[in-house]
Amino acid sequence: MEKPLTGNFRSDKQAVSLEDYERAGGYQGLHKALTIAPADVGELVKKSGLRGRGGAGFPTGMKWSFVPMGKDAPHPKYLVVNADEMEPGTFKDRALMERDPHQLIEGVIVAAYAIEADIAYIFLRGEYVCSHDRLERALAEAKTKNYVGHNILGSGYNLEIHLHVSAGRYICGEETALLNALEGKRAHPRTKPPFPQVSGLFGKPTIVQNVETLCNVHHIVKNGPDWFRGLSKTEDGGTKLYGVSGKVKKPGLWELPMGTPMREILEDHAGGMRDGLHFRGLLPGGASTDFLIEEHLDTPMDYGNVQKAGSRLGTGTMVVLDDKTCPVGMVWNLEHFFAQESCGWCTPCWSGLSWTEKILLAMEQGKGSRQDLDTLTFQTKFLAPGNTFCAFAPGAVEPLQSALKYFGDDFRKHVDEQRCPWK
Amino acid sequence: MLTTEERQEIEEKIAEYPNRQAVSIDAMLAVQRHRGWVSDESLRDLSEVLGVSVADLDGVATFYNLIHRKPVGKHVALICDSVSCWLMGSDKVRDHLCARLSTPLGGTTADGRFTLLPIVCLGACDHAPTMMIDDELYEDLDEERIEEALTQYD
């Protein structure tokens, strides 16, 4: 099985060195890209079917096609790497940056070339100190080799890459909020339109892409869109980094064909539930995705099929709920996170989520009422898409709405017995 | 007054952006690296360097959770309280640390060695529960691992 993203990872968890990276075919995608017209690089990515790996799943090539190109396009144009991994339960981008930093850098250069960007910023989580050190070193090496900088490999193309260390807040993962953060402001989301592709960072055309997405780009250029599609088990191309956390025997992270069934990941790779515990449900792609249960375990983990099952692929890193853990407590933990991380810009979000969190906490403490259950259901509709400024709150209530659906008896038990049955 | 070193670090960052306001966060983090936190006086100094009002800078400082506007201990311990760590018993880790250091979450130990703060998902969910002390990530925490970690700091 081909593993383009993690195949070079070292077992000692050190970063792949530049020499080893080049020996394994690294920077050949860049060499090849520079011989093709930028728009044609975008076309290859479009044909490959690559979709954003940050959670939303937008087709990457299509996103790039909205960027104004050619002589009349405004400059500087920007490519921004969303390396602000903070979705609870998600630990894939950190691995990619720490263990193969040149792979990300090559992806950045090729993507930047495809949109004729002049400057790229890597927007990195402040807590990812190891990623920072390894990327900084890799960037310096890439500059020495003229993979980055002026007249890259004699092609006439120029690109600067800068590392930006963020100071926290989940909302920075929202692309327009991220742009405000990069401009040194509070990270509130912006109104769309204008879309960042046309007017983004400092008012100039900007593309924001997740780390895992960019790590695929030069492989596609090097090996072709058909190769990329062939890696996958379903219509969404490529491989995917899947993770499992929670009380399974072997929590971990694996690169597998896109569309690998949930059960295979859980049982074959994560080793199934720990002894004495039973599976109750999982969040398929981080905190802001709907719970799925036993009946969904044969779902192929890709964008379309997880959506058909009633959730989202999200980041592809599953969080597993066992039968000895309180689902109400788990949802309280999730909503506590979202209430805390709401940027405070629009009222439904900051007010609705703190209200939701308070109700869930009261239930856990044995102080909930039947009316509270109606209020929780109301919140899931009140915070639905279209009622809030950005996608933060609708994502925040996804685990709540599905928990009410699948674990409703547990919620009712909390209010009827005026206690948490797990305590 | 900003030190020469702080000023130099900030100017280096300014060269990477089209305007000075953009480095507001970098500049505050630079000051924090040297002083542990960002005081009112530092905000006034930064305001002059960046051409951004103190009020706007404070608005930015209070938005981001890694910028400290109050003094912190010599070391800052960030304890993950997000879902994967919660499932694996982060409440116990937090309670043990608080008891061991006789400090509530958000507080600083009497000897000024540690400040304990909650943090969101540290991206090491397959090794939950986790925490960071300064720049170091600690995984698979239990009481023994916590003791081991604490001995690394004076």
From TrEMBL, chain A:
EC number: 7.1.1.-
Gene Ontology MF terms in the entry: 4 iron, 4 sulfur cluster binding; FMN binding; metal ion binding; NAD binding; oxidoreductase activity; quinone binding
Origin: domain of life: Bacteria
Coiled-coil region list: none
Gene3D superfamilies registered for this protein in UniProt: 3.10.20.600, 6.10.250.1450, NADH-ubiquinone oxidoreductase 51kDa subunit, NADH-ubiquinone oxidoreductase 51kDa subunit, iron-sulphur binding domain
Catalytic activity: a quinone + NADH + 5 H(+)(in) = a quinol + NAD(+) + 4 H(+)(out)
Top EC class for this record: translocase
Keyword terms of this UniProt record: 4Fe-4S, Flavoprotein, FMN, Iron, Iron-sulfur, Metal-binding, NAD, Oxidoreductase, Quinone, Translocase
Database matches in Pfam families: Complex1_51K, NADH_4Fe-4S, SLBB
Residue stretches making up the NADH-ubiquinone oxidoreductase 51kDa subunit iron-sulphur binding domain: 328-373
Lipid biosynthesis listed as a keyword: no
Keyword ATP-binding carried by entry: no
Function, in words: NDH-1 shuttles electrons from NADH, via FMN and iron-sulfur (Fe-S) centers, to quinones in the respiratory chain.
Subunit structure: Composed of 13 different subunits. Subunits NuoCD, E, F, and G constitute the peripheral sector of the complex.
Stored PANTHER family: NADH-QUINONE OXIDOREDUCTASE SUBUNIT F (PTHR43578)
Protein's UniProt name: NADH-quinone oxidoreductase subunit F
Protein species of origin: Alloacidobacterium dinghuense
TrEMBL record, chain B:
E.C. code: 1.6.5.11
The keyword Endoplasmic reticulum appears for this protein: no
Domain of life, source organism: Bacteria
UniProt KW keywords: 2Fe-2S, Iron, Iron-sulfur, Metal-binding, Oxidoreductase
Positions with a binding annotation for [2Fe-2S] cluster: C80, C85, C121, C125
Cofactor detail note: Binds 1 [2Fe-2S] cluster.
Cofactor(s) listed in the protein's UniProt record: [2Fe-2S] cluster
GO molecular function terms attached to this record: 2 iron, 2 sulfur cluster binding; metal ion binding; NADH dehydrogenase activity
Family to which the UniProt record says this protein belongs: Belongs to the complex I 24 kDa subunit family.
Protein name as annotated: NADH-quinone oxidoreductase subunit NuoE
